[in-house]
Write a structure and sequence with these properties.
Layout: H1 2-10, H2 12-18, H3 22-36, E1 46-49, H4 55-60, E2 64-67, H5 70-78, E3 82-85, E4 98-104, H6 113-123, E5 124-135, H7 140-150, H8 164-173, E6 177-184, E7 208-214
Parallel strand pairs: 1-2, 1-4, 2-3, 4-5
Antiparallel strand pairs: 5-7, 6-7
Length: 216
Amino acid sequence: MRDVVKAFDQYAEDYDRWFDSEEGSALFGMEIALVRTLMKDLEHPFLEIGVGSGRFAKELGIDFGIDFSSRLLEIAKSRGIKVKMARGEKLPFTDESFGGVFILFTLCFVDNPEMVISESKRVLKKGGGLVVGIINRKSLWGELYIKKKEEGHPIYRHARLYSIDEVIKMVEKEDMEIERYSSTLCQPPSENPYKEPVHHQIIEGAGFVCIFAKKP
């Protein structure tokens, strides 16, 4: 954990600027569309675990965010997000505090993803929803980021990507009811990705996949 925190602190500005690049802007737009299809019935307040620089939180209207990088939290705070430094494995909130919890493409950076999902359930109100977005390990884009990891990328060398089935099992282990899915990014990797529609189902080879589950 210490190494990944150091990496995000060191490269916080570079990480945030990537979203303004041609590639970053296109991929971010698809990720936002992917998440929005699953959050329409949720009630505030919302929490994002791994809020980063607050890009997702600001765009999606998420109220609160936690992260382990102090530099990224400073940027998120400047975007109007209420932030706390914390790990997803031990959330600094009371039981049943949120109507929606979001883990958006950051599960690959936590030490214990099962505990993070368990904590997400704890802080969810009854009937609240959990949205988990992943870079699908079993996709061409997953293979690209695994290659980045193997080549020593300053951020992705700390990542551990998961398959759709692996994340489904983590969520179901917490007795949460998976209600729907969304998928996008079926094109092969390139520096100039084009906009794709969101599919309201699992597409096995999709690079981005979201899972929506409710707390009973």
